[in-house]
Amino acid sequence: MKIGLYFGSFNPIHTGHLIIANHVAYNTDLDKVWLVVSPHNPLKSSSSLLNEHHRFHLVELAVEGESRLRASNIEFSLPRPSYTVDTLAYLSEKFPTQEFAIIMGSDSFQNISRWKNYMHIVQHYPIYVYRRPGHEIEPMYGVKILDAPLLDISSTVIRQHVKDGKSIKYLVPDNVQQYILENGYYR
Ligand SMILES: Nc1ncnc2c1ncn2[C@@H]1O[C@H](COP(=O)(O)OP(=O)(O)OP(=O)(O)O)[C@@H](O)[C@H]1O
Ligand SMILES: O=C(O)c1ccc[n+]([C@@H]2O[C@H](COP(=O)([O-])O)[C@@H](O)[C@H]2O)c1
Predict the structure, then answer these.
(1) Which of 55, 88, 142, 173 is the most exposed place for a label (fewest CB within 10 A)?
(2) Which part of the chain is the Cytidyltransferase-like domain (predicted)?
(3) What is the number of the ligand 1 atom nearest to the C-alpha of 105?
(4) Whole-complex ipTM
């Protein structure tokens, strides 16, 4: 089976992430997409990060009932910060019969040369890039650029809306919105 690994902070998961994961799961040669919650992105400050268990739970709520999408907390038991190359090595050893690919937005791809051992990643794993407004890229390293509508949604905007008391309806699934508001996250 071919599995797309969609790594992210998911702080919180939003409709953009879900549209991307669903697009890949149904329009490429990949069979499933795992949304891998990274406790700590090595290139981002952790100050505005909601606890990883809460972020993971929100991803679980978001993919509930969708058989091709799965929430993964595999990085919770690995050293911090979460270096993708280390997670890939761990997964390839743990699931030797699976074929793994990577899914990322074009903003992440623009930074890939700053990732630990990025040449190993680009040489050994297929990469699917979803274009993001304001982040035009040249295809390099044989990456596949997905032909799909641009989505101007970010976790940053959702956190800011919650802080400002604005609605996040439709920007996140209803059950995710309800859980965020009930628990007072991002206030
Ligand atoms: N609207 C979007 N279009 C394309 N790719 C996206 C979009 N939102 C997120 N991604 C991609 O999804 C992955 C995980 O993103 P992440 O969890 O950091 O969300 P984010 O919205 O970028 O968060 P933040 O606003 O906190 O930086 C990254 O590879 C990112 O490029
Ligand atoms: O391995 C690295 O050096 C590396 C550097 C920056 C980001 N990443 C990973 O890229 C993923 C996307 O990060 P984010 O915070 O933009 O959602 C997340 O899983 C990070 O751990 C990985």
Answers:
(1) 142
(2) 5-160
(3) 31
(4) 0.97
